Hints:
By secondary structure, this protein is mostly helical. It has helices at about 1-30, 35-50, 50-65, 70-100. About 90% of the residues lie in helices and about 0% in strands. The longest helix has 30 residues, at about 70-100.
Amino acid sequence: MVATVLHTISSVGRHCVFGSVTYALQINILGCNYGAAVLVAGICGFGLGSTPNAMANMSAVCYKYHYSVKPFLIVPIIGAMFVDLTNTGFITMSLNWIGA
């Protein structure tokens, strides 16, 4: 019971921090237009997991309002490259650290 409560508190806190950072930094950096809002939805999708989550978030926003081309070009290309390069470095560093 205690573990469930702690997990819930941790999850809510993490989402509040992620939402605040998304709103404060990314909207102001990317601009205050519709394309930026769709791109931020994609960034939130990366925060939830991976490129398919980002694409699903952007699709949901575009389905409700209207389509935006630029985020659908930027997110899959940059996301896939960033994840591949980051994972390669992280896996190599981890293997060197454990001495494998």
